[in-house]
User: Which sequence fits this backbone?
């Protein structure tokens, strides 16, 4: 863990985008054997958005969310120096960030993908801060975007009910230490449990006849729901506690708890473990399901749009998911 103190980083704007097409729990029960009651009780999800139609990809959602963030502060895209696209569902194995850079006209930005599943946006913020706080770049666009609907087995009721598609974006700028809004972070990975949650690569049975080279393709999302649940509820509170302890603030100083929107029961269990009042939980997963790397910026953007968050509020943000990777970022919200 390392405290962010070299130079400040401030959040200028957020934006988000979801597809138009929604799928309710009752519509889901026409696709797999399930019910609204089962899904709501176990997860809190009522509906999710799906990116339907030909030639639609994560890039379209990422571009829309980014343009909304840029428009909010009337920033010319050419002022962006770096784009980090956190996604596990790129449209190209080489990465999709460069296509986002091209489509939004960020002609001066370097762009790369960051793969860390549902923790991707937290890792994206922390990565952006390294470049901002060491003075390399002035404006960074961090995007969390995923279209897991393309990687789901729509006959597997244990996973297909959980996920939705979305994108969220945040523009972060370097600033003086006094205006710093990203106070601290704490990150973890444990690859021993990578198979709890994966979209694994499957080789073909027969190799190339001359080269002995095995090619293959990616499978669908596979998840051990019970283990992922136990991992999240046990590890996320520890990450938050480590992060606030090294900042010398207390649980009572937290105004908002913004966790990766995986399951309402996980959000409540983490809050209760930390003795945080559940009315401090930011949650919108009933409308969107688990949107992976997009879930945190989407929920933050919506909370800001309804003026839920006030100047100087402390927001604890935690991501967790495949890897397994999890971590926390603590923000003091500043309305500029
Ligand atoms: N509808 C109806 N019944 C179902 C469904 C469904 N959609 N899915 C499973 N069931 C059945 C199972 O077959 C099982 O039946 P059985 O008892 O006859 O065998 C029963 O319901 C219980 O299944 P469990 O898997 O034990 O249900 P559980 O209470 O664990 O809930 C859930 C499943 C909701 C997935 C839960 O484990 C969970 O939320 N885990 C965390 C998952 C998560 O957060 N993943 C994402 C994090 S990381 C990332 O975002 C990439």
Assistant:
């Amino acid at each position: 863990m390392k405290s962010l103190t070299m130079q400040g980083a401030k959040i200028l704007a957020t934006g988000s985008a979801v597809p138009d097409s929604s799928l309710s729990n009752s519509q889901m029960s026409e696709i797999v054997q399930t019910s609204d009651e089962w899904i709501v009780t176990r997860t809190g999800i009522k509906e999710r958005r799906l990116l339907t139609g030909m030639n639609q990809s994560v890039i379209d959602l990422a571009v829309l969310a980014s343009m909304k963030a840029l428009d909010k502060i009337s920033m010319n895209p050419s002022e962006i120096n770096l784009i980090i696209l956190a996604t596990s569902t790129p449209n190209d194995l080489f990465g999709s960030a460069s296509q986002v850079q091209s489509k939004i006209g960020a002609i001066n930005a370097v762009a790369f993908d960051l793969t860390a599943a549902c923790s991707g946006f937290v890792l994206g913020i922390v990565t952006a801060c390294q470049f901002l706080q060491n003075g390399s770049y002035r404006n960074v666009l961090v995007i969390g975007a995923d279209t897991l609907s393309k990687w789901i087995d729509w006959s597997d009721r244990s996973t297909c009910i959980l996920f939705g598609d979305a994108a969220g974006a945040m523009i972060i700028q370097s600033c003086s230490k006094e205006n710093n809004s990203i106070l601290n972070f704490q990150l973890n990975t444990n690859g021993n449990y990578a198979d709890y949650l994966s979209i694994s690569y499957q080789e073909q049975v027969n190799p190339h006849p001359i080269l002995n080279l095995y090619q293959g393709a990616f499978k669908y999302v596979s998840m051990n729901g019970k283990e992922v649940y136990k991992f999240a509820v046990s590890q996320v509170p520890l990450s938050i506690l480590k992060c606030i302890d090294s900042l010398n603030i207390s649980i009572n100083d937290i105004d908002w708890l913004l966790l990766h929107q995986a399951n309402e029961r996980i959000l409540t269990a983490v809050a209760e473990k930390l003795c945080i009042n559940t009315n401090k939980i930011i949650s919108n997963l009933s409308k969107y399901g688990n949107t992976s790397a997009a879930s945190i910026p989407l929920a933050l953007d919506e909370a800001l749009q309804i003026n839920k968050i006030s100047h100087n509020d402390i927001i604890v943000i935690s991501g967790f998911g495949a890897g397994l990777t999890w971590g926390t970022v603590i923000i003091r919200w500043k309305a500029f």
User: Anything to note?
Assistant: The mean pLDDT is 95. Residues 34, 38, 42-43, 117-118, 157-158, 161, 197, 223, 225-226, 228-229, 262-263, 266, 290, 292, 321-322 surround acetyl coenzyme *A (CB under 6 Å). The chain has ten helices and 15 strands.
